[in-house]
Amino acid sequence: MTKRGGRVGVGVAVAVWIAVPAAAQTGQPAASAKAPVISDTGRLKGPRQPIFFRHDVHAGQDQVPCLYCHSTATASSEPGIPAVQTCFGCHQMIGGSTPSHQAEIKKVREAWVNKQPPRWVRVHALPGFVRFPHMRHIKVLGPESCITCHGDVRAMPQVYQVATLKMGWCVNCHLQRNVSRDCTLCHY
Q: Is the pLDDT of residue 30 over 50?
């Protein structure tokens, strides 16, 4: 088995695991809400992406944990954009339930075959002189901490910026949690 084939094989195993409803994995009741079909993406908040990635379907309806796709957030300052390999690991088997979903999944498969990742449009950005260690925040606040800055993406068909992410907003969060406000924590 080639190295590449091994990674895809792992992706298949994870895809099967994810395909099992989260309720069966955790014993918790599954979310009953099914994400709505969206035919007009032009009215959605947030930047248009090269692939219409539905966070409300993946993270909401299917309950895929944030850290499955954004795994580097626990070990890095940058949460990172998932590799096409991560998407393809599931979507080599999962084809989509509607024609519009199938069309977007086709883009994922083509990106994998052509070895050309999509050029995602960044939604959340901080100035270059600001350091935001995702791993530290996740370690202290847990995986649900993503909602604090990014909003509840489980309900967003298309991700958009919810919080200002400006200095006053961050300082206010630190004040509320009685966390250090030393300048060198965030600034180089």
A: no
